[in-house]
Design a protein that fits this description.
The chain is α+β, with helices and mostly antiparallel strands and 299 residues long. It is 27% helix and 23% strand. The chain is globular and about 55 Å long.
């Protein structure tokens, strides 16, 4: 039986063969893939068991803010669309259990509404909760990992498991507990109490991001990790005069040098060549090995 026939038999999954997923990433690089939109954790568990039995590679794609995909993706793209009662965030609780598919924008709205201290750290990040936890996403205000108590997953065998967060669970822009093939399905997130200044902090930081980052363009967020707290990737790239550096329809942003903007129909190969050129110059002039912050699963 064909894989698509097996998937189509699973309740709460919408399967699309050869789907155009270009608009499923913020970078809008041209890409097509077989796509499974999964609406329940039970369906996801069944799907992963089938994929493992058939030795099919899969990749989780949330808001696609930090993933660079090829023009034709091998394997299956999985997009989570779990149901979530928004009324949960309308009430004040010490902690919340949130599905991985909920966007950080929804959490930020709750932070403004209730004045939730700590939740300002993910202001303006275009990500789902699951993707943010996977990357330990953050801003200059802090990282989301510091607010997570438990993470719920379905592992590569299709089984449910819980990770209780410790001080070793996260580091800069990465987690240390999601194994290859595991899928984050939700988390328990807490805050540090009410603070009447939180709405103002969030508003100020959003305004700061608008003036310093190209939020209105097609981009994938910060491309490179900062080499250290003393050396910011954007500043180093700027000092080499690489703002405006182009490859095809891709250009290093004139507003923030650690952003690459897609100004026309661009693809994975052009992005790879552009970032490799930047990495070469960083190593040549500064002796620094730049590391990508964005994920290139098929690199």
């Amino acid at each position: 039986m064909l894989l698509k026939e097996l998937i189509n038999k699973i309740p709460d999954i919408e399967f699309q063969e050869g789907a155009d997923i270009t608009k499923m990433t913020t970078f809008r690089l041209e890409s097509k893939a077989d796509l499974a939109i999964v609406k329940t954790t039970e369906a996801l568990s069944t799907l992963i068991k089938i994929l493992k039995q058939n030795k099919v590679h899969y990749l989780i794609l949330g808001m696609g803010a930090n993933q660079i995909l090829p023009q034709k993706v091998d394997g299956l793209i999985i997009n989570l669309k779990f149901n979530f009662d928004q009324n949960i965030l309308s009430e004040l609780h010490d902690e919340y259990v949130i599905p991985a598919s909920v966007t950080l924008n929804h959490l930020t709205s709750a932070a403004v509404r209730h004045g939730l201290s700590g939740w300002e750290v993910f202001t303006g990040i275009p990500a789902s909760l699951g993707g943010a936890i996977y990357m330990n996403a953050g801003t200059t205000l802090g990282e989301i990992g510091s607010l997570i108590k438990e993470v719920y997953l379905i592992d590569k065998f299709g089984e449910y498991k819980t990770h209780e967060v410790t001080e070793k669970s996260f580091s800069y822009r990465r987690n240390h507990f999601v194994e290859h093939g595991d899928v984050i399905i939700g988390a328990k997130i807490f805050h540090r109490g009410k603070d009447d200044q939180i709405p103002g902090k969030i508003k100020s930081y959003l305004e700061y991001r608008k003036t310093t980052q190209p939020l209105a363009t097609k981009n994938c967020g910060c491309v490179f990790k900062n080499p250290s707290k003393l050396y910011q990737a954007g500043r180093l790239i700027d000092q080499l005069g690489l703002k405006g550096f182009r490859n095809g329809g891709l250009q290093v942003s004139l507003k923030h040098a650690n952003f690459v903007e897609n100004q026309s129909n661009s693809n994975w190969d052009q992005f790879r060549d552009l970032t490799e050129a930047i990495k070469w110059q960083m190593n040549m002039f500064y002796g620094i090995e730049f590391e990508l912050e964005v994920k290139i699963p098929y690199h």
